[in-house]
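Figure S4 source data
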Amino acid sequence: MNRLLRVATAAALIAAASFGGSATAGPFEDGTAALERGDYETAMRLWRPLAKKGFAGAQYGLGIMYADGEGVPTDYGAALSWFRKAADGGNAGAQVALAVMYANGKGVTKDYAAALGWFRKAADQNNASAEFGLGVMYENGQGVVQDARTAAGWYLHAADQGNATAQYALGILATRAKACRRIWSARICGSIWRLLAVTSSKRRFQRPML
C-alpha cells in the first residue's frame, strides 16, 4: 500500500465504526478485525452488504482491499469507485485515499488539482494524514507553487496530532535549513524546535515506514 494510505488506514477504519450506528457497528468492527488478522474472505463477506447499503466505512474498507489485492485481485478501478462512494459520504480516510490515487496516477490519470481538493476536504475534518499530504505537495510544488513555509505549517498541524511521518518530515525540513529563520518566520521556527524537543523527549520522533 502507498505510504499515505498505510498511515491513514487503521485510524480511519476505527473512526468509521463510531459513525455506523448500532445496526452496522458490530458487523463493521468484525470485518475490521478480520482484515487485521488476514481473514480477507470474512472481511469481504461482512463489509460488502454494508457497502451496498451506503455505509461509508465499509465502502472505504472494500476500496483498501481492492487497492491492495487483499482477498481479491488488485483492481484500482474498483478501489477508486469504492473510495469515491465513501469520500462522497464524508469518510476522511477515503478522501485521503482518493487524493493519493490522483497524486500517484493509480487507476486514474495523475491530477494534482484533484489530489489537493480531496486532501483539503479531509484536512477540513482535521485528518492528520491529509495535513501531511498537503505538506508534501507544498514542499514538492505539486499542483501548487513550491512553498516551504506552507509545507511546514501543514506538517505542524499533522505533527501536533502525533503523526510520526509529519514529525519526521518536519525535522528534515528544519535540518536542511542552515538558519531556520531565513526560511520560516520566528513563530514557525520556534514551533518546529519546540515540537522536536517534545517528541524527542517522549521518544515519538521516528523514521516512518517506507
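Figure S5 source data
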Amino acid sequence: MRNRVLASDDTVPTRRLGMPQHAPQILRFLPLDQPRVVTNLDLPLQIALEALAASRLRGLPERAAIALLVGDLKTHEIRALVAGVPVDSPDREARAGALDLSQALRSPGSALKPFLYALAFQDGLASPESRLDDLPRHFGGYAPENFDRGHSGPVTAAEALRQSLNLPAVALLDRLGPARFAASLRAAGARLVLPREADPSLPLALGGVGTDLRDLASLYAALGTDGTARSLALAPGEATTRPFLQPQAARLVADVITQPFPGGGAPGVAWKTGTSWGAMPGVSASTPPMSPPFGSGGPMARRSRAPPDAPWPCRCWRKFSICCRLPRARWRPPARRRRRPRQWIRCA
C-alpha cells in the first residue's frame, strides 16, 4: 500500500527544496501552534503580487518600503498581501522588512476624501453636481492649501473629488462636522489614531489622523459593494459586518472616482491616491460589473525624514498610483522651515 501511494504522487524531488517564504511579515499573527493553518491567500496571486512589489522596489530610493493588498469584494477575503520587503531582498533590514506595514499607522492623506463626500451626499449637504468654491479661505486659525498651491474657483463636487482639491473638502467637512466624520469611520471598523488629547478637527479631511492599509482597504471595499463595511479577512471566519454608507451614496462616489489612470490602464476602475508626510497610500475599489471583483491598495513610505536628492516632492514623498505608475513630480525645496500643525501625525 505504501509503495502504491508513493507511485501515485508527482515526481519525487531529487534535491532538497527550500521552504516557502511567502508573506513572511504576517506569519507572526497566525496561530502556528495548530497542526494546520488555513488562510484566504491565493498562492498564484500572492506570488504575482510579490513579484510586482519586488520589481517596483528596485526602482525606489534606499530605505523606501512598499505594501500591497488585494481583496475579493464578493467574499471580503484578503487574497494576496505584501506587507513589506521580500525575505530575499539584499537591503531588507534597511527597508524595515521585518515590519508588517499593512498594519502600520500612517496618515492616509487625501484617501479619506471619498468617504467625506459620500456622507455629504447621503446627508443632502451636496450632490455630485453641486457647486463648491475652491478659493482661499481661513477656518479660524487653519488655512488649508491645495497640493499645487493653486485655486480652481467654482467647481462641481464631482470635479473637486476627482482633482482631490483640499479647500472644498475642508469646507464640506466644516458643514458635516469632524466629530461626525470620525465617528462614522470608526463605526465602520476603521482604527483612527489622533495625537494625545486631540479631538477630530478639520485637518481630518486631508489625512490628519493615523490609520492602516487593511482598514483603509476595507473602507474602500464598501464603495464597490452596497456601502456596508466588512472587514477584509485573512483567515476564514474573521470578517465582520457594520453599517456604513447608503447604497446610493456609495454608488455615486464610486462613479465619480471611476476614471482612466494617468498614462492609460484598465478602464472601469474606481481609484484614489493620497499624499502625506507619513505615507503615500494608493487605493482602488473595483466597481462591478465594469471590472473584476477585486479591490486593492498600497502605501509606499520612506523612513528617512529628508531626501538625499531632488526627485521627491513634499520633502519626502511621491505619489503612488494603484497601477504602480510613479508619476514624477517637480520637487521644490521649502523657502523656510515651517512649523508643523498640531493636527499632523509625526511618523518615523
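The helical segments are 2-8, 43-57, 113-123, 157-162, 166-176, 178-187, 213-223, 247-256. The chain has one domain: 36-315.
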